[in-house]
C-alpha cells in the first residue's frame, strides 16, 4: 500500500474512529471503577489540608 | 535567594550563565549587523547580569537547615513579580494598538511603532509574558503542595523561569526591530525557538521528577492539566517551528511546511495554543485555587477527570475551523467543525463543576472579591467556549471570519477567563506565599475586580457590534449584484466601536496596575509574627498510605 492521500484518509477515517472510541471507553471505565472512588474522594479533600510543609 | 543554594550549585549556576553568554557571543560574532547580532548582545547582557548576581553572592553563607523540610518558594515569588510586570507591559501595548486603530497617527510615522510590529508585542506580552510566567509560578506552587514534596531541583526552576523570560525578551524586541516568522503566536525566529525548546524540556523534566517524588498516592487533577499544558506545548512548538534559517548568521528563516499544509500546521498549533496554553494550564489553576479559596472540595472529582480527557482529545482536532472556505480539504474543515462543537461538553463540564463547587458558598462569593474573580472566570469560560463552538460552525464562520467578532471572542476568553482566573489565583497565592494574613487592601481587590469586569464587558460588546456590522456590510449586495459597501465604508462604521474597545482595554490595564500596587504593598507589609497553624501536627487524617 503506498502512502497516498486517499489511503491516509481511509486509515484515519476508520482506525481513527476506533481508537478514539476505545480511549473514551477506557477513560469512562477508569473514572467510574468502584475501587477508585475512595482514592478520588481522598484526592479532592487532600488539597484543603492546612499544613504547609513537605511530608517526610 | 542565592542563600538557598549550596556553593556547588552556585558554581553550576555561574557555569550555565557563562555558557549562555558564550552562545550570545557566538550569535553576535556570526550575526554582525543582522538582528541576530543584536540579539546575541542581548543574550550576553542577560547572562552577564545573572552571572554578576551569582558571583556577588558566591561566598555568602550556605543554607544550614534541611531544605527538604520546606517548599521551594523563591522562584514562585519571582515568577509572580515577572508575571505582573509583563501584564502591565502587554496590556499597555494592547491599549496602544487598539488606540492606533481609532487614531492611526499614534504610530508617529515610525517603523518600529507601526501596527504590524506592535501587535505581536501585545499578544506575546500578555500570552507568554503574563500568562506564561503565571503558569510557571502557579504550577511550581501547585505541584509542590499537592505532591507534599519540594521541587526536584534547586537550579532548574531558576533556569526555567529566567530562560523563559529571556525567550520573551528576544521575541518582543525582535518584533520591534522587524523580524517575524509570520506565524500567529509563533512569531519569534528560529534561534529563540531552539532556546525555548531547551527551556521547556527542562520544565517538563522538572515537573515529572517532582511528581515522582510525591508523598500523596494520587496525582491531584490540577497536575494532570499542568502536565498536559507542558507536554503538548512542547510538541506544538517544535512541529510548528520546524524551519530552515537562510544562513547561520541571519535571523530570517523559512518554514519546512509547504502551502496549505503550512496553514494547517499553523492553526493546529494556534488553536492548541489556545487549548493547552490558555485553557489546560489555567484549568489547573482553577481546580486548585478555587477549592482552596472557597474551602470546599471540587463538586465532582470524577467529572474533572472526564472533562480532562475530553478536552485533551477533542481540542487536538479543532484547529482546522480556522481555515473554513480555504484550500484545505472540505472533510478536514468538517472534522474541525465537528470536534469544535463536541468540545462544548467537556468545557461546560469544567465550568459547571467550578460553579457547583461554589453552590452553598455564594455568601463568600459576595463578600470575597478574590473568590468572585474565579467565579466570574468560570462564567466567562462557559460563555466563550459556547461562542467558540458556535463560531466554528461553517455557515456562522462565513459571517464572523476576518471580522472583529473573532477578536471579541478571543478577548472574552483572554480577559474574562484567563486573566480573571490568574488574578484570583494570585490574590490567593500572594498572602500565603509571603506569610501574610491577607492582601494589603481588600478594597483594592474589589476595585480591580470591577475595573476588570467593566473593561471586559465594554471590550466584548464593542467587538460583537463591530464584528457583526462588519460581516454584514461585507456580504450585502445591491440589486445589480455588486457589493453595496466599500471596505472603507465598513471602517467608518467601526470607528465608534474602536474607541469603545480601547477604553475597555484601558480600564482593564488600570485594574492590573492597581493589582500590582496591592501585591507590592502586601509584600512590603509586616509578616505574621507566628506562621498560621505552626502548631498543628504534620500528619492529618488523610496521610499517605
Automatic annotation (TrEMBL), chain A:
The chain crosses the membrane at residues 15-33. The keyword Membrane applies. Keywords: Membrane, Transmembrane, Transmembrane helix. It holds the Pfam family FixQ. CDD domains: cbb3_Oxidase_CcoQ. The keyword Membrane applies. This is Cytochrome c oxidase cbb3-type subunit 4. It comes from Aminobacter ciceronei. The lineage of its organism: Bacteria, Pseudomonadati, Pseudomonadota, Alphaproteobacteria, Hyphomicrobiales.
TrEMBL record, chain B:
Its main location: membrane. Pfam families: COX1. Gene3D superfamilies: Cytochrome c oxidase-like, subunit I domain. Its EC number is 7.1.1.9. Its cofactor is heme b; Cu(2+); heme. It is an enzyme of class 7 (translocase). PROSITE patterns: COX1 (PS50855), COX1_CUB (PS00077). This is cytochrome-c oxidase. It comes from Aminobacter aminovorans. The lineage of its organism: Bacteria, Pseudomonadati, Pseudomonadota, Alphaproteobacteria, Hyphomicrobiales.
Amino acid at each position: 500500500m503506498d502512502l497516498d492521500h486517499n489511503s491516509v484518509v481511509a486509515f484515519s477515517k476508520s482506525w481513527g474512529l476506533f481508537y478514539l472510541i476505545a480511549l473514551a471507553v477506557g477513560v469512562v471505565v477508569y473514572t467510574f471503577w468502584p475501587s477508585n472512588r475512595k482514592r478520588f474522594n481522598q484526592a479532592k479533600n487532600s488539597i484543603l489540608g492546612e499544613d504547609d510543609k513537605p511530608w517526610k | 535567594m542565592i542563600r538557598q543554594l549550596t556553593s556547588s550549585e552556585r558554581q553550576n549556576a555561574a557555569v550555565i550563565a557563562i555558557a549562555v553568554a558564550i552562545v550570545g557571543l557566538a550569535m553576535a560574532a556570526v550575526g554582525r549587523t543582522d538582528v541576530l547580532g543584536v540579539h546575541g548582545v542581548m543574550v550576553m547582557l542577560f547572562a552577564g547580569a545573572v552571572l554578576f548576581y551569582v558571583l556577588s553572592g558566591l561566598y555568602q553563607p550556605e543554607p544550614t537547615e534541611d531544605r527538604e523540610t520546606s517548599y521551594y518558594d523563591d522562584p514562585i515569588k519571582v515568577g509572580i513579580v515577572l508575571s505582573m510586570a509583563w501584564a502591565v507591559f502587554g496590556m499597555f501595548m494592547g491599549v496602544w494598538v487598539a488606540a492606533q486603530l481609532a487614531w492611526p497617527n499614534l504610530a508617529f510615522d515610525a517603523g518600529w511603532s507601526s501596527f504590524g510590529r506592535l501587535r505581536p508585542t501585545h499578544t506575546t506580552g500578555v500570552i507568554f509574558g503574563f500568562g506564561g510566567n503565571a503558569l510557571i509560578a502557579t504550577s511550581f506552587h501547585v505541584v509542590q503542595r499537592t505532591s507534599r514534596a519540594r521541587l526536584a531541583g534547586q537550579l532548574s526552576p531558576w533556569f526555567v523561569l529566567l530562560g523563559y523570560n529571556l525567550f520573551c525578551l528576544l521575541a518582543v524586541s525582535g518584533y520591534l526591530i522587524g523580524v517575524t516568522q509570520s506565524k500567529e503566536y509563533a512569531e519569534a525566529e528560529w534561534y529563540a525557538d531552539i532556546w525555548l525548546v531547551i527551556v521547556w524540556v527542562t520544565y517538563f523534566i522538572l515537573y515529572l521528577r517532582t511528581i515522582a517524588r510525591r508523598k500523596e498516592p494520587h496525582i491531584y487533577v490540577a497536575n494532570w492539566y499542568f502536565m498536559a499544558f507542558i507536554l503538548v506545548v512542547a510538541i506544538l512548538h517544535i512541529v510548528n517551528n520546524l524551519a530552515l534559517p537562510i544562513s547561520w548568521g541571519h535571523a530570517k528563516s523559512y518554514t519546512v511546511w509547504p502551502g496549505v499544509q503550512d496553514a494547517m500546521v499553523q492553526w493546529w498549533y494556534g488553536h492548541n495554543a489556545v487549548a493547552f496554553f490558555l485553557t489546560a494550564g489555567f484549568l489547573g489553576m482553577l481546580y486548585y485555587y478555587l477549592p482552596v479559596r472557597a474551602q470546599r472540595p471540587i463538586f465532582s472529582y470524577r467529572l474533572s477527570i472526564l472533562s480532562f480527557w475530553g478536552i485533551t482529545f477533542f481540542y487536538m482536532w479543532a484547529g482546522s475551523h480556522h481555515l473554513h472556505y480555504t484550500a484545505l480539504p472540505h472533510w478536514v474543515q468538517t472534522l474541525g467543525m465537528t470536534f469544535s462543537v463536541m468540545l462544548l461538553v467537556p468545557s461546560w463540564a469544567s465550568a459547571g463543576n467550578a460553579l457547583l463547587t461554589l453552590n452553598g458558598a455564594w455568601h463568600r462569593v459576595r463578600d470575597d472579591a478574590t473568590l468572585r474573580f474565579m467565579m466570574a472566570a468560570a462564567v466567562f469560560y462557559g460563555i466563550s467556549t459556547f461562542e467558540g463552538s458556535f463560531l466554528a460552525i461553517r455557515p456562522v464562520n462565513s459571517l464572523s471570519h476576518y471580522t472583529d467578532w473573532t477578536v471579541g471572542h478571543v478577548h472574552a476568553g483572554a480577559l474574562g477567563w484567563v486573566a480573571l482566573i490568574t488574578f484570583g489565583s494570585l490574590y490567593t497565592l500572594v498572602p500565603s506565599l509571603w506569610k501574610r494574613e491577607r492582601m494589603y487592601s481588600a478594597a483594592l481587590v474589589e476595585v480591580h475586580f470591577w475595573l476588570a469586569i467593566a473593561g471586559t464587558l465594554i471590550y466584548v460588546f464593542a467587538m460583537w457590534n463591530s464584528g457583526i456590522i462588519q460581516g454584514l456590510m461585507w456580504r450585502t449586495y445591491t440589486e445589480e449584484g455588486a457589493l453595496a459597501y466599500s471596505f472603507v465604508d465598513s471602517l467608518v462604521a467601526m470607528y465608534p466601536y474602536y474607541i469603545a474597545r480601547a477604553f475597555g482595554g484601558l480600564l482593564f490595564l488600570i485594574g492590573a496596575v492597581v493589582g500590582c500596587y496591592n501585591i507590592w504593598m502586601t509584600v512590603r507589609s509586616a509578616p505574621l509574627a507566628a506562621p498560621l497553624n505552626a502548631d498543628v501536627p504534620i500528619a492529618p487524617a488523610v496521610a499517605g498510605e
